Amino acid sequence: MDCQKTIDQRVEWIKTLLRESGAKGVIYGNSGGKDCTLVGALAKLATPNVLGVIMPCGSSRNYGSDRDDALRAGQRFDIEQIEVDLTATKDCLMSALGSNLEENHVSDYALKMAGANINPRLRMSVLYALGQSKGYLVAGTGNLCEITMGYFTKWGDGACDFNPIADLTVPEIYELLAYLGAPENIISKAPSAGLYEGQTDEQDMGVTYASITAFCKGEEVDESDKAKIERAYRSTAHKRRMPRYFPD
Fold first, then answer.
1. Which CATH number characterizes residue 63's domain?
2. Neighbouring C-beta atoms of residue 209, cutoff 10 Å
3. 204 found inside a domain
4. What is the DSSP letter of 139?
5. Which of 36, 89, 214, 245 has the most Cβ atoms closer than 10 angstroms to its Cβ?
6. Separation CA 131–CA 26 (nearest Å)
7. CA dihedral 48, 39, 34, 60 (to 10 degrees)
């Protein structure tokens, strides 16, 4: 990859979006992970008006290593960071849902994820509220591997005004981060959505980023992994399109 060319193209694209929309800047959720770090860095190269929002929500990791890495990334790329703690907000929502959430649930996994997916949906509400008040565009932070697998929350972290890394695989994300001099800990730690303790992306998906990357590039993939990826891609197709409107 020609890292400088790749960066320059994305920076110019963001500048064009800001100019055409009349937006004053960019806002993004900063979890201290690889993707949001790269998005923040690209946005900062495009405009001085960038705001990262750290949004802990229940998980102790959100208050520890994730927050530390988010602050390091903000400092490294000179991006203003604020914190909006959503733990109490989620607790109130879960209390309001009460037993309704548990009644007739289809599986324990579905019940667990119904609660976990509240986190990114609350976070996106925060980003759009702050973004609208400031006249900023909301930047998405999903990479090609995650989009292919549908590994994002519909109307949560999947919602955005633009996404400058949607065509990049995870190895390409890391290559660009290294080129830009991102904090080493962000590059070396296992990717995780941080929705609950001990979570990792690859464990959740049941397939490695290496296999997903190979699949995306049309390279040879283990048949078992290929079947998992194709199944995930089919079952999450609804996440990658706008709502269906009759009679479509």
1. 3.40.50.620
2. 20
3. no
4. B
5. 36
6. 8
7. 70
The 10s digit of each residue's pLDDT in 195-230 is 566 678 888 899 999 999 999 999 999 999 999 999
The three-state secondary structure class of 222 is: coil
Establish if 111 belongs to a structural domain. yes
SS (H, E, C) 159-177: CCCECCCCCCCHHHHHHHH
Reported for 90-93, long-range contacts at CB under 8 A and 24+ positions apart, including other chains, are: 90/57, 90/58, 90/118, 90/119, 90/122, 91/58, 93/118, 93/122
71-123 residue pLDDT tens: 999 999 999 999 999 999 999 999 999 999 999 899 999 999 999 999 999 99
145: Cβ contacts below 8 Å, ≥ 6 apart: 151, 169, 170, 209, 212, 213, 216
Within a domain: residue 101? yes
Which CA distances in Å does 92 have to 54, 122, 134? 20, 12, 27
Specify the pairing of strand 136-138 against strand 80-83. Answer: unpaired
Task: Name the amino acid, one letter, at 19.
Answer: R
Asked if 179 and 3 count as a contact pair (C-beta separation under 8 A), the reply is yes
Domain that holds residue 170: 3-198
Would you say residue 23 lies in a domain?
yes
- From the number of C-beta atoms within 10 Å of its C-beta (0-12, 13-18, 19+), residue 184 rates as exposed
**Distance, CA of 174 to CA of 214 (rounded, Å):** 16
Q: Which amino acid is at 175?
A: E
